[in-house]
Amino acid sequence: MWQRIFDHEGIRRLLVTSSIEEIQAGQTECDPAGVERYFRQVRRFKEEMMALIHMSAGAPARATELISIQHENDSQAQSQRGVFIDNGMVVFVTGYHKGYKMGRRVKIIHRYVPREVGEVMVYYLWLVEPFVPSLQVIARRQCDYCPWMWQPRPEAEWAPGEDAAEEGEREEAAAMEEDAAEAGGEDADAWSDAEEDWLSGVVPQTIEAAPRNVDGFGDPDRVRRVMYRETEARSGVRTGVAMWRNAYPAIQCRFCHDPSVREALDDIYEAPRAGAGDASIASVRARQAGHSPRMEEMIYGLLLTANPIATMTEQAQFRKVTIDWHRMLRFASSWIEHAVDADLEQRRQKEEQRARQRRWDRIRRIDIDATMTQLYGAEARLRGIQRPALEAMVAQVPRVLAIMRTGGGKSLLFMLPVAATPDDGVTVVVVPTISLRQDLQERCDREHIPCVEWNGKRPLYHAGIIMVMPESAVTKAFGRFIDEKRTMQQLDWIVIDECQVILESHADWRPEVLKLCEMAEKEVQVLYLTATLPPSEDPRFYQAIGVPEADVVRFREATTRPNAAYRVVEYPRGEEEAEVSRLVEEREARYPPPGQIVVYCKTIEQAKGMAEVLRCSVYHRHVGDTAMKKTILLRLTRHMDGRPDRIGCEEGEERCDVCQGAPCGSAREQCRQ
């Protein structure tokens, strides 16, 4: 880590104030403010990992169990680490003392995390954990560290003579009841005053019982707040530790893939039947030898590499239950071929096939005419190529290309199927511009079609239509969302609106749009919509989207516009502003309100200059905040039918577009200009 900091100037400036010569001489000085910012990032990362581990590692631990995990053995041999790697999976091992007085034995629990989560933890323990103490030495002169993942608050904070686990669970339940009773509740991100003071730079030695970790003390209250914050931000529902411990067994018992896992969960969460005993071969063999199965595994034939505090059978059962939970959460690593029983894999494939068949049946039952009447009234009729294109969509044709004039009803091709199946499935619509996205949002709202904008930090799973910009559609986060929906047979269609932008993009302008060809590889039906794709461009378009022409069903209608005219006005060099001003004045007489004149400029500075000359509004990406942008855009683009601007004019509008400057680029770009 230090070597990377020294080699990377941008990172070095964030943490280190020393020059290269001073660093080479061993005189490294850190920027205190930069180090504290980094420590806060570590704190946030560890809190997110806490919630992720708690919800992905199978049966959830108590809060006091979770904060008792160590990543290394105590220097005084008073406690042992609780993070291991078992057969390629990271496992967290905890012990709890509930019921200790009855059995005089600490219960040891293994919780396995998915490989995707385990890899992140390994990287943290490999790179971040050794790096943080070195920063503590340089920036805080702190030489005392602790081996805890989340350092627990000193036990003196708890009531004397009370079982910590039982107390923690009661605190969690009481806190959950308080939050449910009080409107508003406590802010999930609220920190205690002591932690705020410590993180703001107060020297740790000035605070009694200062934490040795950079992220402060952990306690049940903090775990509860972290769970509230992360679950509300990512699912919209605040879920605390106690609530999740109650919900988990019901969820897994209902949806588990392996019947034997359901039996194991029943044994864990339900009281054993009277007179019931273990009749397995291993149990009978152990009793025949005069001892219990656990005693046999703990003493006889024990491998040197075996766990000294748990049996191999217990570990295997914990692993089996946890992996079943990973499969329910759709972690790809849980379905690795060599780790899946053949019967279980066959059952999974049958379930997916049944889900796929249910999805196809649901789509085939769509009544196009009835839904059209429901949306637009009894007098509404389909026009042009709308019906054959919709029939192809309902028939699950893999690739459909619809070329329709602007205002011809392209958006109906995906809005109608979604309206016909409002409670099932998701349709992803890739839109190239913000104004187009806002227009589609307004249309969906008018027709009461659930439609949302993609948010990578908080995916919304309830919407029938999810709109996403091309740059976001090719990110890993959106790719995971698509794969999850596809695996669950909930992804109905992918729609790429104004798909001609794929041909217009290049390495210097919206290069990420070129990656939209990946959408054709998602094993789901893709609908391409455009109004500006001449037949001569078809071969280049098929090559750009990565689909052979024979695999695409194309519907084309006439896109010529008899009410549109083009004109090129030449002017002397240096008189551009004067000529544009003269042309606008001339057109104002021809297109009185509510007609509009829109002047397009090539640069923001050019647009600002022309706005001053013409004494009119200006719109560009840096003008105001989101609300102000929307207000200006509506004022600039509202036309006779009350709808905002799209890529092209709607039928019935009167408008003059003036493109300032000489046309440049390819012939296609010149035509668009």
UniProtKB/TrEMBL annotation:
<feature type="compositionally biased region" description="Acidic residues">
    <location>
        <begin position="163"/>
        <end position="184"/>
    </location>
</feature>
<dbReference type="GO" id="GO:0009378">
    <property type="term" value="F:four-way junction helicase activity"/>
</dbReference>
<feature type="domain" description="Helicase ATP-binding">
    <location>
        <begin position="391"/>
        <end position="551"/>
    </location>
</feature>
<protein>
    <recommendedName>
        <fullName>Helicase ATP-binding domain-containing protein</fullName>
    </recommendedName>
</protein>
<comment type="similarity">
    <text>Belongs to the helicase family. RecQ subfamily.</text>
</comment>
<dbReference type="InterPro" id="IPR011545">
    <property type="entry name" value="DEAD/DEAH_box_helicase_dom"/>
</dbReference>
<dbReference type="InterPro" id="IPR027417">
    <property type="entry name" value="P-loop_NTPase"/>
</dbReference>
<feature type="region of interest" description="Disordered">
    <location>
        <begin position="157"/>
        <end position="184"/>
    </location>
</feature>
<dbReference type="GO" id="GO:0005524">
    <property type="term" value="F:ATP binding"/>
</dbReference>
<dbReference type="Pfam" id="PF00270">
    <property type="entry name" value="DEAD"/>
</dbReference>
<dbReference type="GO" id="GO:0043138">
    <property type="term" value="F:3'-5' DNA helicase activity"/>
</dbReference>
<dbReference type="GO" id="GO:0003676">
    <property type="term" value="F:nucleic acid binding"/>
</dbReference>
<dbReference type="GO" id="GO:0005694">
    <property type="term" value="C:chromosome"/>
</dbReference>
<dbReference type="GO" id="GO:0005737">
    <property type="term" value="C:cytoplasm"/>
</dbReference>
<dbReference type="GO" id="GO:0000724">
    <property type="term" value="P:double-strand break repair via homologous recombination"/>
</dbReference>
<dbReference type="InterPro" id="IPR014001">
    <property type="entry name" value="Helicase_ATP-bd"/>
</dbReference>
